[in-house]
Write a structure and sequence with these properties.
Blueprint lengths: L5 E4 L2 E4 H13 L12 H12 L5 E6 L5 E6 L6 E6 L17 E3 L2 E3 L3 H12 L2 H4 L5 E6 L7 H10 L7 E4 L6 E3 L1 E2 L2 E9 L14 H19 L1 E2 L3 E2 L1 E15 L5 E4 L8 E9 L7 H14 L3 E11 L2 E2 L2 H10 L19 H7 L5 E5 L12 E3 H19 L8
Parallel strand pairs: 5-8, 5-9, 9-20
Antiparallel strand pairs: 1-2, 3-4, 4-8, 6-7, 7-21, 10-20, 11-19, 12-17, 12-18, 13-14, 15-16, 15-17
Helix pairs in contact: 1-3, 3-10, 6-7
Length: 406
Amino acid sequence: MGCSEREFFNGKIMKKADATLDLAKRLISIPSYVGEDCDEQKIGEFIFDYLKQFKWLKVSKQRVTKKRFNIIAKDGYPTKILFCGHLDTVQPRAGWTTNPFQPTVKNRKLFGLGATDMKGNLAALLSNIPQAAPIKGVGFLFYIDEEYDFLGMKKFIKEYKDKIRPKLMISADGGDLSIGYGCKGLIEVSGKVQGISGHAARPWTGNNALSGSSKAIEKLTEELKSKFKNTELGFSTCNLAFMQGGLNLGQDSQGNIRIGKEGNNIADFAEFVLDIRPTAPELNAQRVISLLEGYLKNEGLNLRQVTVRHDLGSWLTEKRSLKPIKNSLKKYLPGGFRDIKSGGYIDIQMLWSCFDKVPCLMLGAGENVMAHKPNEYIEISKLNTLKEAFGQLMEILSKGGEHYGN
């Protein structure tokens, strides 16, 4: 690379601001959602080749599935600082007025799938790789499957939980030029409930699994909201994401329950999916199931089958441990600390939990309200500001700034 104001990219010397925008365009132009005939392989190869040009980094691929992989890059010292970001996006939605994979600049905004979440942020981080060289103990993780089942993060933790001991971790999965310092957890529970059938004209002769389950879930939602709270993260929430039911007609050849939809029956079967966002550390999947079973029992119903897809707690780094970094970046991050009450789950929580809850933070310039929406964009001025913020942060860390969290 060249001096601090210019860098070599795409075969020519250009100003760093132009290089960051060009890099964001290149990333957007490589589809990396997970679907039929598409995943993160191509963008992974691109970033792997990009990182290989920095001879002071050891760059490797960590296989997650047969074809998909994480990218891990680190210098020759024990890792003290870990930067990370995910490579995947959601699938393109209907409603785009431009091609989501052809980056378009209009009104000083860069449009394209992933512009906000999180290819713009990745470009700002990647374009600052040279500034990280003096840190001595820096590592980078670029991982897959964040928008789906967290396969990439789970694989990294499984292999590296006893290999590195970072003192500070920074995710580029933030937004709005602010500092994220925590998130709600993620619990997903699926349940099947058995009631008692009967004639619709005599509802007292049966027990409606649909209405009873709805009442139980409403009571569960209220208890989670009122009893499981955190000052910074707010109250825990419960969302009924899916529900169906009716008369249990037995199983089909694949083992799925056939559901009768005739109106003259009392629905004796219900199934549902609950998405819970816990803010209190004592709330986990088993606690949710126990509470739910109690409320269903009060309705005369039994939880016949239950499945847990996610059981992930909340993350919360004390703001006071990050204030020196916040003060050093106030020129670039006018938003200061982000309001974390309304944010979703961020899988840096897994890193935080795995590595002894050392200080973690998120930075980003994307428009959080545009994430996962058609016509997603990032403001170019904010993209350039984020590039400067990452550069400043790396300068701080090269002078021992990782001790801010201690």
